[in-house]
Specification:
Layout (H helix, E strand, L loop, with lengths): L15 H9 L3 H4 L13 E5 L5 H8 L3 E5 L3 H10 L5 E4 L7 H5 L4 E6 L8 H12 L2 E13 L13 H10 L2 E10 L3 H5 L3 E9 L6
Parallel strand pairs: 1-2, 1-4, 2-3, 4-5
Antiparallel strand pairs: 5-7, 6-7
């Protein structure tokens, strides 16, 4: 199966220009305000899973981090590599739940971002994906994950995912909860539609007690 056929990518290869306009209009500081204190100091090794427009990866690279930007939608990946090129970013065509190409690199990360990604996976895929994600974290590394709640845009594949389920999966993978925060959508159109978000942060600990 090629990454182009991965579940959850449906619709993202349509109207790419509009997608980039929306994604790139959101300031990094605003998007990650709730978890800014959990982002490690530069230089850190960061994995951005579902990198989308590549803007987060670029902003992190500008701050002095080294970023592996993983994106399974060919149209988005190709455009992101052009718009947000930076020598500290490596780009990779790969995706959840298996992250086979990412795991094959044998790299451990200080921070993993799963921004607006997790809700594209069904329950079985989420159970498969979490151990793969947790296994890519270095000891003490942080996972920052956001869950979207509200109406599903036409042509997209999304599921309602609870914080409780996500926390249970993370704990089973050796990750402890550092933050759980509810917030409204940054985008005005989504706020009007009733979209809200749960922001979760987890840390990989050496102890078996999480």
């Amino acid at each position: 199966m090629t990454t182009a056929s991965l579940d959850g990518t449906q619709g993202y290869d349509q109207d790419v220009e509009a997608f980039f306009a929306r994604a790139d209009a959101i300031a990094f500081a605003e998007k990650y305000a709730d978890v800014a204190h959990l982002i490690p100091a530069a230089p850190a090794e960061i994995l951005d899973i579902g990198a989308g427009s590549g803007k987060d990866a670029f902003d992190l690279a500008v701050l002095g981090h080294r970023v592996l930007a993983v994106e399974p939608t060919p149209a988005l990946l190709a455009e992101a590599m052009i718009r947000h090129a930076h020598p500290a970013i490596a780009w990779l065509d790969d995706g959840l739940p298996d992250l086979a190409a990412t795991r094959a690199r044998g790299q451990a990360f200080d921070l993993i971002l799963l921004s607006a990604v997790w809700m594209h996976l069904d329950a079985g895929q989420r159970r498969r994906a979490m151990p793969n994600v947790a296994g890519l974290l270095a000891d003490g590394g942080m996972l920052i994950l956001s869950l979207r709640h509200g109406p599903v845009p036409p042509g997209r594949r999304m599921f309602e995912v609870s914080a409780e389920e996500t926390i249970d999966l993370a704990r089973a993978g050796g990750l402890g909860v550092r933050l759980q925060q509810e917030r409204g959508s940054i985008q005005a159109a989504n706020r009007l539609a009733g979209v809200t978000w749960t922001i979760l942060a987890f840390q990989k600990v050496k102890s078996s007690t999480v």
